[in-house]
């Protein structure tokens, strides 16, 4: 079962959010038919996004992360909420497979240069939006930079997706560690020192460690408190009513042309690939109901 945890280090100005998301990223791979390098790029973005969602207060809050680079994969859009539900859309999920000199999937190659935008909708008239340039294209470093520049929150973001020889997701997980506003210089030094000892998340998960054990090992000798645990899953909330609203947004003139052609309309959800078909008769009813 995929899940995420949040907690803190007692008597220190440090909080953390961590997730294991093997099945969730695998579900994304199946939905979008991603190639291995694309799976790694999107999977990392998903984990960061679902953990940011976990930092938000209300169940109705929504966060959307947009990685827009000039590489093969194009734009990656991930949307999540505090309930651990996440979905995504990808411009080009079937990128070529690139490997770095040290044998890892070359995420930077498919992402390229561009920007990272994070939009937080907490029910106000205007959602909060922050945007930064991609500093590496490796995703983890880019989200770290986002927190520092857009939210002025010193953070460490570690993300990992391991794809096996059959292109399946073998392990996936990540964590966000943040210093609270009352942190002192010695707290910064302590966290930097501990992060330097942290091995890749997927290496630890493949060794059979839980995310709780990974966090405890990271803060060895400190009193780690885990205050909550929630499921993580790939989930799209599309439905017929939402699709009808999308169709109505085409405008009455465009809708009338479709009705006159008497062929109905088919709408594909980009997040889950579910197809919705409305007949000419249903479209006529939709127009009448909107009057």
Can you describe what's shown?
Helix content is 35%, strand content 30%. It is built from ten helices and 13 strands. A hairpin with a 6-residue loop joins β12 (265-268) and β13. It is an alpha+beta fold and 291 residues long. The protein has helices at residues 22-32, 36-54, 107-111, 140-150, 185-195, 201-206, 211-218, 240-248, 252-261, 280-290; strands at 3-9, 14-20, 62-69, 75-80, 85-90, 114-121, 128-133, 155-163, 169-179, 224-231, 233-234, 265-268, 275-278. The chain has a six-stranded mixed β-sheet with strand order 7-6-3-4-5-11. The chain starts with a strand and ends with a helix. The radius of gyration is 21 Å and the shape is globular.
Indicate the topology.
Blueprint: E1 3-9, E2 14-20, H1 22-32, H2 36-54, E3 62-69, E4 75-80, E5 85-90, H3 107-111, E6 114-121, E7 128-133, H4 140-150, E8 155-163, E9 169-179, H5 185-195, H6 201-206, H7 211-218, E10 224-231, E11 233-234, H8 240-248, H9 252-261, E12 265-268, E13 275-278, H10 280-290
Parallel strand pairs: 5-11
Antiparallel strand pairs: 1-2, 1-10, 2-9, 3-4, 3-6, 4-5, 6-7, 8-9, 12-13
Helix pairs in contact: 1-2, 9-10
